[in-house]
Amino acid sequence: MTPRTLKVANWLVLAVLVTVGFFWQGREFALGVLVGGLLAVVNFHLLHRTLRALLEGVPQASPEERGKAKAFFAFRQMMRFFVLVLLIFVLVRYEWVNVLGLLAGLSTVVFTLMLTAIHETIKLKHKEADPSHGTSHPLS
Fold first, then answer.
1. Structural domain of residue 67, as residue ranges?
2. Which of 37, 77, 90, 134 could form a disulfide with 108 if both were Cys (CB 3.0 to 4.6 A apart)?
């Protein structure tokens, strides 16, 4: 599965979670899911962009530049983590969102990855069970 497909799947999972949350628990819960999901999906997107930039730039860089690029990547990740923690703290501290909805929304990427893993496993099992794949020998 491509990163683009994962990003689209993240948005679809978030839409489903917000819709289910709205009809199951109401507007406040759905808002918490939406805010948490936005934080998670945007963070996932930024991680992808940063990691791709690092991996594309490192091969042609000198060893010293590679070390600096890795350190800068780690620094950016730590800063993004602390900003995320600060945002979550403010949202929870001032009760701007439903905490359980926020947690469900923050799990959007995890849900997407789990669904993707299940989907890929099912595809693999069907491919193994399909006799047209593999050798021409009927017993193999």
1. 3-129
2. 37
